[in-house]
Each structure stands twice: as C-alpha cells, then as structure tokens.
Amino acid sequence: MSPNALATIQIRPYLASDRQACLAIFRSNMPRYFDSSELPEFDAFLEQPSGDYFVVEQGSAVVGCGGCYIREGKGRLSWGMVARDCHGAALGASLLAWRVNHLFLRPETAEITIDTSQHTAGFFARYGFRTTQQISDGFGPGIDQISMSLQRDDWQPEN
After folding, report:
1. FRET label pair with 90: which of 3, 4, 54, 153, CA 20 to 30 Å apart?
2. Strand pairing partners for 113?
C-alpha cells in the first residue's frame, strides 16, 4: 500500500447494505483468525449490531469493520477485522485507534477490554493491551481465546 493510501480511507457507521461485504471480510479471515462456527454468530450480530459498529472504506470498497460499546463502565471492542488481502496495510491500526478513541471520549471509560486470539494478541499488545486470561481452543480448534485489557493511561496510539 502506498504511503498515501491511508489518506484514502474513511471510517463510517455500519449500514445494513454493508452486511455482505462484512461477511466476505470475515470469511477471508477463516480459518486462521476466525473459526467457521463463529460465522452464524457474526451474521446474527450484523442483522442487529449492539453498540457502535463501523466499516473501513477504501475508495468504494468496504475493507474492514469493527465495533465497540460500553458495558458495566468498561469499554469493549467487538468483531474487528480487516480483509485478509489488506493485512499489513495499517488499516487495522486505524480502525483500532478510531474505536479506542471513540470509547475514551467518554471520561468515565478508564478501561477497554477485548477477547481476541493468539494470532492477533501481539497486535493489541503493541498498543498497550495486556493479557488477562487465556483459554486454549476458546474460539475453536487451534484458536485460543485471549482476554486483554487496556487502561486509559496505557493507550499508545502512535505506535
């Protein structure tokens, strides 16, 4: 991706018309990042997203999606992903920063949590998230569930 490519992205609220593009993004990340058993849950989520859900557009193509919400005073990240052929292009970092900043705009949000896998935990760790729990095969065979937490003071958006 060219250095100016990030300037061409837009992060905007999810629309029902984005559903098929988001499902295609999910499928592009199977089986390494998502187990096929999670697809029906994600599909149901897209029918009626809880919290705030966003898509990343590059040109006219939806190339990423991810959500966030607040529960019991903690921010939570949900269903974040970038199309497999766009990995390594800083789109995930842009989407993460968008969602974290969105949650931390609320002064009462001191912590953000996420459940992710061993395949992406290092990505979140680069931005200050710390592992709080690990469950082997928690999302499916070969996909561990890693619970992580980010304190407001540890947010490192410039990494």
Report:
1. 153
2. 76, 149
Classify residue 124: in a domain, yes or no. Answer: yes
Asked whether residue 159 is assigned to any structural domain, the reply reads no
pLDDT tier at 1, thresholds 50, 70, 90: very low
CB atoms within 10 A of CB 135: 11
Residue ranges making up the domain that contains 76: 5-154
pLDDT, tens digit, 9 for 90 and up, residues 57-89: 998 899 999 999 999 889 999 999 999 999 989
pLDDT in tens, 21-51: 999 999 999 998 998 999 999 999 999 998 9
Considering just the CA atoms, what is the radius of gyration of the chain in Å? 15
